[in-house]
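ugh ok fine here u go
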Amino acid sequence: MKEFIERMQIELENNSRKGNWEKFAVKENRKNIVDEISHHLNKLNIAVYEKDEELIKEYSADIANIAMFMFNTTK
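structure:
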């Protein structure tokens, strides 16, 4: 679990250039958040098919982070 949390943090840092997720993670953007999860799930499917362990880790962490943003829209 610790490795997964660390990977989530790395992915958050790597994607920080994309902008402020706090502004994105609002109820009005839920459809966009789901679209982002779907996009990363497609990438994860390809990584699984290609047996690319590093990309599986990356995309799994990305999906978890995006799901966390969705969770935050409930506040």
